[in-house]
Specification:
This protein is mainly α. The protein is about 80% helix and about 0% strand. The protein has one domain (about 1-180, about 200-405): Growth Hormone, Chain: A, CATH 1.20.1250.
Length: about 425
């Protein structure tokens, strides 16, 4: 039993390391926006659109990854995603704008295989009672990668590392990760191979016809936008242009958000598993995120200790990963990969659509003027409404925690 559990943990860790890697690439552009702007001849909004193309790959390939892993297993699918991310990083580092667009899309398309693979492994290899904790721990790896993509990469770029050299090195790293994943992930019995299209369509139909699945995706997307768009795309520039921080300090403050994720994602999952309930944790954390976001946009920077508000916002944002547990619990267990793909499609589809919209809004409100705090407030005030809507939607979400399931069983027995 111990050896089996040890093997399960090792397999999950492999996928989690891959998730760390792709998240670091997702976050890294925020600390090199001036270099990217100069290299590609783009405005700040143009670079933001280029960087945001990640989500246009991530969202649609969520379904590909989810249905494929349900049919073929992790070993046949997850390494392919790592190869795509590595190739995308190499293309991005060429300095050619067309190649960069293709490369950024590939980074997103391949990156989604990491999370889908890790969540699939959790569902296959571990007891359901620990699901929220382990899915949160998976996000911890991703968040630590996002933090590394800012904390570590920022000083390297400031110290003279060429941005193109960084992307070339990360591309080669992706190929290495793909090889390790293929060698060490266990083989699985392939099922439903002859009816691939029919089985995939059936799985997608079951998941998307369930209103709870749509609710999970919408809540996740609305809770993630403040971090995927405001922090990971505009964060450093917002702190420099809105509050006058120098580059190094802006990088450190922006990086506190993914650092908070690193703690908040497993913590929220653990609290939820201990309480046996999902909704109270999701709603409470959503309220905290709303307050933090309001303070980030409108509060006085020196009123709280440095780095505190960003860190707490990241911790609260980690609660969004509970929806990845809920969607698995409201759908048939044999569709574990498909459910993760479905929620990722909705979640990051929202980010993909929102990214260019916020970029256009920033251009519209600034009208060619020097960008300042008021322009960021006018552009990103709508994030507050989105988080408030996510909290409201949680009220109609089904409670799927272990305590609720026990209560339901007792009620049926009575």
């Amino acid at each position: 039993m111990k050896s089996r559990m040890g093997a399960a943990v090792a397999v999950w860790l492999l996928a989690a390391v891959y998730y760390f890697y792709q998240y670091s690439l997702r976050a890294a552009p925020v600390v090199m926006l001036p270099q990217l702007s100069q290299a590609f001849g783009l405005t700040a909004a143009g670079v933001a659109s280029l960087v945001g193309l990640f989500y246009f790959g991530y969202a649609p390939f969520s379904l590909v990854a989810g249905t494929a892993i349900d049919r073929l297993g992790a070993r046949m699918v997850v390494p392919v995603g790592a190869l795509m991310v590595g190739a995308g990083a190499l293309l991005f580092g060429t300095g050619n704008l067309t190649a960069a667009y293709i490369g950024r899309f590939l980074q997103g398309a391949g990156g989604v295989f990491a999370l889908v693979g890790a969540v699939y492994i959790v569902g296959k290899q571990f007891p359901a009672a620990h699901g929220a904790t382990l899915i949160g721990a998976t996000q911890m790896f991703g968040a630590s990668g996002g933090s590394a993509g800012q904390f570590l990469v920022g000083p390297l770029i400031a110290g003279g590392l060429a941005w193109s050299s960084f992307w070339t090195g990360m591309g080669l790293t992706g190929f290495l990760i793909a090889a390790v994943l293929f060698l060490l992930l266990p083989k699985e019995k392939i099922t439903h191979q002859s009816n691939w299209a029919k089985d995939s369509a059936t799985a997608l139909g079951v998941v998307f016809k369930n209103p709870q699945s749509i609710l999970c995706g919408a809540i996740a997307g609305l809770l993630f936008i403040p971090t995927t768009i405001l922090d990971m795309v505009w964060g450093v520039r917002f702190l420099q242009e809105g509050h006058g921080f120098d580059y190094g300090e802006a990088v450190l403050r922006s990086a506190t958000v993914p650092l908070g994720w690193m703690i908040g994602s497993p913590l929220m999952g653990l609290i939820s598993d201990k309480l046996g309930r999902r909704k109270p944790v999701l709603m409470g954390a959503g309220c905290v995120l709303l307050l933090c976001l309001a303070w980030i946009l409108y509060g006085r920077p020196g009123a709280f200790p440095p780095y505190l508000i960003g860190f707490v916002a990241g911790v609260a944002s980690g609660s969004a990963m509970l929806t990845y547990t809920i969607i698995k619990e409201v759908n048939p267990p044999e569709y574990g990969g498909t459910t993760t793909g479905a929620i990722s499609l909705i979640n990051f589809g929202i980010s993909a659509v929102a990214g260019p919209i916020f970029g256009s809004m920033m251009q519209s409100v600034s009208q060619g003027q020097t960008v300042g705090l008021v322009h960021y407030q006018m552009t990103f005030q709508y994030l507050l409404y989105g988080v408030a809507l996510a909290i409201a939607l949680t009220f109609v979400l089904k409670e799927t925690g272990p305590a609720a399931r026990v209560e339901a069983s007792l009620a049926e027995a009575a």
